[in-house]
Each structure stands twice: as C-alpha cells, then as structure tokens.
Design goal:
Blueprint: H1 3-25, H2 31-52, H3 55-91, E1 97-101, E2 106-109, H4 111-117, H5 126-131, H6 145-148, E3 152-159, E4 165-176, E5 182-191, H7 194-242, H8 248-279, E6 287-290, H9 291-308, E7 312-319, E8 324-327, H10 329-345, E9 351-361, E10 364-374, H11 381-385, H12 407-418, E11 422-427, E12 433-443, H13 449-458, E13 461-466, H14 470-478, E14 485-490, H15 496-505, E15 512-516, H16 521-534, E16 539-544, H17 551-555, E17 560-565, H18 569-580, E18 600-603, H19 607-619, E19 624-627, H20 630-639, E20 644-648, H21 656-664, E21 675-680, H22 685-694, E22 698-701, H23 706-723, H24 728-749, H25 754-781, H26 784-801, H27 804-818, H28 825-849
Parallel strand pairs: 7-9, 13-14, 13-15, 15-16, 16-17, 18-19, 18-20, 20-21, 21-22
Antiparallel strand pairs: 1-2, 1-5, 3-4, 4-5, 6-8, 8-12, 9-10, 10-12, 11-12
Helix pairs in contact: 1-2, 1-3, 2-3, 7-8, 7-19, 8-9, 8-12, 9-10, 10-12, 20-21, 23-28, 25-26, 25-28, 26-27, 27-28
Length: 851
C-alpha cells in the first residue's frame, strides 16, 4: 500500500473517532441525528478509499468498517442506557423537576413535570414550562438563578385542579462545570402539604411579630427621646429655680412641677422597660445609696398626687434605714413609684404609708424590703391573683372609676424577680391593700460620715408630735427614733400646752413640738400661737404643698419652721438642727473636697438645654464655655484646652460620636485627652454602647438633675486629673522620682550585670500590664473580689520597687472594691492606668541604657 493511501485511511478513522466523541458531548435530545451523521461520514470515507485501493486494501478496509460499526453500536447502546438511567433518576423525584441550559431551554424533564406542565417538547423553555410565560420571569418578582448564580426559593399561589388556591414553593439550584462556569440549573416545583403550610404560617407570624416588636421598640425609643428633651428643660430649670430666693408658695409650685414631670417620666420608663423585658435586653446596675434616699425620692414624686386627692402619704423606716447598700437604685425607685401610684389610684380617703426597711444579719446577705399600705377599697382574692398581669383591668364595682392598665405593676413584678426577690399582695375587699417586695442587696462596710455626725448632734432630744392620724405620726417617729430622738404623740390639740408644761415640770422637757397644720388650719395655727405664749418652744409646722400657708399666717409666731408634707427624713432633721442650733449647715460643695478646677466645654445645639447646663455648672462655681454644633467643638479645642466636654449626641453638621472619634485621634488637643461625657435623651442600652465605642467616657441621660450632675462631676474630675499632660515644672520632679526608683532597683539587684536589672524591669512591666488587664475585665463584670485580690498583689510589687504613687492607686482601687463603692471604681481604675502609663517610660529608658 502506498504512503498516501495509508494516510487517507488514518484520517478517515480519526474523523470517525472524532465524530463519535462528539456524540458523547452533545445534548441528549440530538443523539440519533449525530449517530446517523457519523455512520454516513464513515461509510462515505471508506467507500472512496475502497474505490482507489487494491484488493488487499479493500479487504482490510471492510474489516475496519465492520469494527467501527460495532464500536459505534456499542457506544450508542451505552449512551441510550445512560440517558435512560438519568431519566429514571429525575423521574424518581416526586415533585415536578426540570434541568435547564443557560439559554432557558429545557435539557431534561421528569415524569411529574410532564404531567404537571404538559411539556411535550424537550426544547421548551423553562419560563413556559413552569410559569406559562412567553418570556423570562421579571427579576423584580423573584431572582433568576441563571442571573444570580445562587440558589433561591420563593412561594407562589397557584390554582389547583379543584379550582382552589394552593401554595407552591419553587426551588432553583445552579449547575457549574469543573472550571466553575455556570452551565444551567435544576428547578423543582413543590406543593406544600398541611404541615408545611402550618410551619410557613408560623414562620411568617414570627417574622411579623418580630417586625412589630422592632417597630414598637423604635416607637417607644422615639417617644422617650422626644419626651425627655423638653423634660430636661422643665426639671433642670426647676432645680435652678430652687437655688433662688423663693416664697413658701413659690416653693410649693416648684415641687408640684417636679412631681408632675417625674410622673410623666415614670410612665415613659415603664414603656421602655416593658419592651426591654420582653426582649430580654434589660440589664441591672449597681450603685451605692441609703434606704432613706429611696424613700425620699418616691415621696417627692408622689406627694402632690396624693395631696391633690386629699389623702395623706407618709414614709416610714425600720431596722437600719441609714445603712448604705448596693443595688439598682433607679429600678427600685421605679418599682416603688408604680406601687404607690396604684395605691393612690384606689384610695379616696385615709392614707398611704410607704415603709422601707433594711434587714442585715451577719449570717445572710442584707435584704431591702419596701411595703406600700393604703386604706383604699381593697380587692377580692380573685382580683389579687390578677394584679400582676399586664394590661389587665380590675372590674369590680367599687373600682370602676379608677381602672388602669396595670402595666406598671406587671413591670414591677418582673423587675423584682430579675433582682432575685419576691413581691406579694395582701388585701381585703373594702379594707385596704398592702403590697410589699423584698430584694437582696449588698451592705457597704463603712458608715456614712454625715449620718454619724447627724446622730451625735440630735441624740437624746425629745419631740412632741401633734397629729390626729396615728399611722402618719408613727411613720414620722420611725425615722427619728433611729437617731436617738425621743418621740411622743398627741392627737388632741387641747392637751398640748398642758403636756408641754408637765414635761418641763418633770425635768425632762420637750425640745421641739411638731404640729400638723394641714387639716383645720385655723385651729392648729391657734394652737401654735398658744404654744408660743406658753414658752419659747421651737416649733415645726407640717403643711401641704397643695395648700401652702401664707407668710403672714406664721410670721408673728416666731422661732418656727415649716416643712411640706409628705415629710422627708432629711428635711425634718435639717430643720431640727437649724431650730435647735446644733450641727453645721453645709454649703452645696462642702462634701466635694476632691472637686478640681475643671475647664468645661458644653456642646449642645438646643439653646434652652445649652443655657440650662451652663446654669447648672455655674451654680456649682464652674467656669463654662459652650458651642452649638460639632465642628465648633473642634474649633474650640484648637484655641483652648478643656478637661471635660459635655457632648450632645445629636448635633447638626457632625454628631457627637464623630466629633469624639476625631478628638480621640489626638489631632485637636495637645494638652492631653479630655473627658467626654455623652449628654442624650436616648437611654437605650444600644445607644450607651455606641457612645462608649466611639470613645466617650461616661453617659448622662436627660433630663439632667442637679444632684446627678454633681455626682458625675466627682468622677469626671478624677478622670480629668489622671489625663492631664505633665507640665514643664513637673518634668524635673518626674526625673527625680525616676532616679529614686532606678536607684532602688539597682540596690535590689546588687552587684550584678545589667541583664538582671533588665529581667527585673521586664517582669514588673509584664506582670503589671497583665494584672491591669485582669482588673479591667473584673471591673466590667463587677467582680469586686478579684479586683481586691489583684490590687493587693500589685500594691506589694509596687512598694517593693519604690513605685509609691502607683502603689497608692492600687490601694485606692482595692479599698473601693472591698467597700463595694461602685461609683468610685471607674475613677480609681483610670488613676491606676494613667499612673502606670506615666512610670512605664522610666523603666523602659533604664532598660535601653543598660543595653
């Protein structure tokens, strides 16, 4: 055979093999056509070769033709079997299923889809087979898997065979080649059964509930913000108004204004807490307070509401009310206000008595118990069981005129249980109600210095209480007797002068007489005048903020002071000291010896709130500058250094978070980082975290009260002092201190190489840094025991090396942890961290010199 013929035969066989390979790569629908083409091409090629070949070549070509036909037949058989197997797989899927190409054409379709979609043509497009459309689906309705390349599913409503609407879920999954190219997709139509429809309904109900919850939470947060902003001006200006010279009537007006404003804020707090409790987002705080502080705050807020209804409200104390304890003061106040408000609502005559007790036994944790008793209409046992249910109205006949939602009482129960306490109700229909709760608290070790001094000043005094309500009289006596003040009660005015004379004759006279002139004022004022004629007896007149006395009614009596009801323990004791001329009347800042001369900048866009905050700070003798937007803060810092910035969070041009981030970058203030305090009406936990994350140091919620501002200034002054940059005059002192510390370190190391000193330095710096990290974590978790232990260990290492100031900072933080003075922990931690940052360069410089 010639070489040319051999090449022709090989080319023919190769072409046949190539065409056979194409058969395997072609879509399933075109198999028969390709096989026919291959056979025809092979036959034609072999025929041409035979014509020109010799007899031997023709024989060999005939044999090759038969072998090729056999191989093609086997391939065709295997291909048919593969098609049948693939079809059997998708036919086994019970739901209508199709496989589509990139051009939307149907590559394969199962038996269920043929019956469902009547797709008789394999080349039909998916949008016609599944959706009955003439073109691709609108991406606005649902995403197309061939466009996104991602799996998707969505629910459709279709008409069933019986004419009823059915829910159908369309699922689409993309197909990719080995090279990662999108080649097509698998689409499945699934009719939802009863169980799946129920699950879908529940899922959608859950999503709707979550959406409604978010909307409600946003609404409550917005309402809270909008209410707190104007209330900030109302209550703040009331605080400033108190500091001016006011008449008795004007003071009563201020107290009424404060009481009503606080009631409104209490309602807003209830709404926020109800939403947070439902979401599980409410976090309790710890702060130090006296039990009497809780009592007084509640009486201040609720006094006008009670007196305006013509009923008495009084506070009583038991056990050790002046004990300092640690707990969530604001939540406890809120719970008590809710209980008192409910008691006033269902009481038309008589009294409401609020009792606070702290029971401290060495064998168990301290317990704070608050009881609210009223002489109202009471309730049945069935109504009592529903008292703590939210949005439940009590519908008994006598209560029809004083129905309420009960939201505050329900929140109170949840808050008490969150604190680990319990709340109970005792009531008898027509005879009044008593609701009490008790929660565990932590006792603060050290007694309050002012309490001890007050007891010494008023000890062994004797008072005569003139009041015709024995419960109110007993309540007043309850917070005087713990101060070693003897109290006698007289209910008949005509016997007062005689009792005063008899006591004087017996050698144990009364030191003061307290007369309630709120009822039958003319008779009681006559009693006060008769008492004055009988002797030079100091007198305290108890009056109502709703019905204050006129100045002319008491000016002629002399040596008399008036106290508004409800009687506050601190106010009564203060007036006793003034009348009896014992103790020292302290100035507003007398107990703030650690206040520093802070350079303060107020950033607030609201002119009323800006003026208010400036007024409050100036009333405390601070010099203040103010700006009205964020960019102005940065401009002010370029011209002057500030220790403290009171930063409103929402300002035009640039919000407080953004301004704080720029300040923290250190570009605007070369004299140390100022303390930045967020001033905002948004009291949510998320907003608090957002402020702290932006670099702010503390959080002051509106409305701002003067006492709250004073308390904050104590902390911020300590923070500011620890951040101030070392001045030139202090640099020399720092160098002397550094030399002393390094010299002590060399003495400890002895006559050894510098490597030993370097080891001392590395050990001290690494150990101190590690302990400070532990202290930070413990502070966040309020793990006071760990803080105390770490401070003790770190203090020993500091004293060993002669780092006395750092040791003092450890001692201060350790004592605050031991005494559970929670408010002092953060300032003390700032001092410790700042002092370590100050001394670290000393050791690092010495280490570099020894290298």
């Amino acid at each position: 055979m010639s070489k040319g013929r051999l090449i022709a035969i090989l080319l023919g066989v190769s072409a046949a093999g190539l065409l056979t390979s194409l058969v395997l790569l072609m879509p399933l629908g075109s198999t028969k056509q390709i096989v026919a083409i291959v056979l025809f091409g092979a036959s034609l090629l072999l025929y041409l070769l035979q014509v020109r070949a010799d007899p031997d070549a023709s024989r060999r070509l005939g044999h090759a033709k038969r072998e090729l036909e056999k191989e093609i037949g086997e391939l065709n058989q295997r291909l048919s079997e593969s098609e049948a197997f693939s079809q059997s797989i998708i036919d086994g899927v019970p739901d209508p299923t199709i496989i589509i190409n990139k051009d939307f054409s149907v590559a394969a379709i199962n038996r269920a889809a043929r019956a469902e979609c009547a797709a008789g043509d394999d080349q039909q497009f998916c949008y016609r087979a599944l959706h009955g459309r003439d073109g691709p689906c609108d991406p606005a309705n649902h995403p197309c898997v061939l466009k996104t390349g991602e799996s998707c599913k969505h629910i459709q409503v279709r008409d069933g065979e019986d004419g009823e609407e059915q829910l159908v879920e369309l699922r689409a999954t993309p197909l990719y080649s080995e090279s990662g190219e999108l080649t097509g997709a698998v689409e499945v139509l699934h009719r939802l059964n009863d169980q799946e429809r129920l699950a879908l309904k529940l899922r959608r109900a859950k999503e709707d509930a979550e959406t409604a919850h978010r909307a409600r939470a946003e609404f409550v947060a917005t309402i809270s913000h909008e209410v707190r902003t104007p209330m900030n001006a109302v209550l703040g200006m009331a605080d400033l108004l108190r500091l001016t010279a006011l008449t008795r009537k004007q003071k009563s007006y201020v107290q009424i204004m404060e009481s009503s404003s606080n009631m409104l804020l209490s309602l807003v707090d209830n709404m926020i807490d109800f939403a947070n409790l439902e979401a599980g987002d409410l976090v309790l705080k710890e702060e130090v307070f006296h039990a009497t502080d809780l009592l007084e705050r509640v009486l201040e807020i609720m006094g006008y509401q009670a007196n305006s209804k013509g009923i008495e409200i009084a506070g009583a104390t038991e056990h050790e009310p002046d004990m300092q304890v640690t707990g969530d003061f604001e939540r406890l106040r809120q719970i008590t206000i809710n209980l008192v408000s409910n008691a006033i609502k269902f009481t038309d005559k008589g009294e409401v008595i609020v009792s606070v007790a702290v029971d401290s036994d060495s064998d168990r944790p301290a317990t704070l118990t608050v009881s609210v008793s009223d002489s109202g209409i009471g309730m049945s046992d069935e109504a009592a069981t529903r008292l703590f249910e939210p949005f439940t109205q009590i519908t008994e006949p006598l209560e029809s005129q004083a129905q309420g939602s009960g939201l505050g009482i329900a929140i109170s129960k949840q808050l008490v249980e969150l604190m680990g306490g319990e709340i109970k109700v005792e009531s008898e229909f027509g005879r009044g109600t008593t609701v009490w709760f008790s929660v565990p608290v932590t006792r603060v070790a050290d007694a309050d210095k002012s309490v001890l001094e007050g007891r010494r000043a008023l000890g062994n005094r004797r008072l005569l209480i003139v009041n015709d309500n024995p419960k109110v009289s007993a309540a007043i006596c309850s917070f005087l007797e713990p101060w070693d003040i003897g109290c006698d009660v007289e209910t008949r005015p005509d016997r007062v002068v005689g009792r005063l004379a008899a006591a004087s004759d017996s050698g144990y006279p009364f030191d003061c007489v307290v007369i309630d002139v709120d009822t039958e004022q003319a008779d009681r004022l006559d009693l006060a005048r008769a008492t004055r004629k009988a002797g030079d007896m100091p007198m305290i007149l108890l009056t109502s903020i709703a019905r204050p006395l006129k100045v002319g009614q008491i000016s002629s009596i002399g040596k008399v002071r008036c106290v508004n009801k409800p009687v506050l323990p601190s106010e009564l004791r203060h007036n006793l000291r003034r009348l009896l001329q014992v103790g020292v009347v302290e100035s507003p800042l007398a107990d703030d010896e650690f206040f520093r001369a802070l350079r303060i900048l107020v950033a607030e866009d609201n002119p009323i709130n800006r003026r208010l905050l400036r007024g409050m700070l100036k009333s405390l003798d601070f010099e203040v500058d103010s700006v009205n937007d964020g960019p102005s803060v940065l401009f002010a810092l370029r011209d002057k250094s500030y220790d403290l910035i009171m930063m409103d969070c929402q300002m035009p041009g640039m919000d407080g978070d953004e301004v704080t981030r720029i300040i923290r970058e250190g570009k605007e203030n070369s004299d140390g980082q100022p303390v930045v305090v967020a001033v905002t009406a948004d009291v949510s936990a998320n907003h608090r975290e957002q402020c702290l994350h932006a670099g702010m140091d503390d959080f002051l919620a509106k409305p701002i009260r003067l006492d709250t501002l004073k308390s904050g200034l104590r902390r911020w002054s300590i923070m500011a002092e620890s951040r101030r940059v070392q001045l030139p005059d202090a640099a020399a002192e720092l160098q002397v201190e550094s030399n002393d510390i390094i010299e002590r370190l060399r003495e400890r190391a002895g006559p050894v190489s510098g490597e030993i000193i370097d080891e001392y330095i590395d050990l001290f710096l690494d150990d101190t840094a590690s302990r400070i990290d532990i202290l930070r974590t413990a502070l966040e978790q309020r793990d006071l025991d760990t803080m105390r232990r770490e401070c003790h260990a770190l203090k020993g290492a500091c004293l060993e090396l002669g780092v006395s100031r750092l040791g003092s900072c450890c001692d201060a933080l350790g004592k605050a942890s031991k005494d559970r003075r929670v408010d002092d922990l953060s300032p003390a931690m700032y001092r410790l961290t700042a002092e370590f940052d100050r001394v670290r360069p000393m050791f690092e410089a010495e280490k570099n010199r020894s290298v």
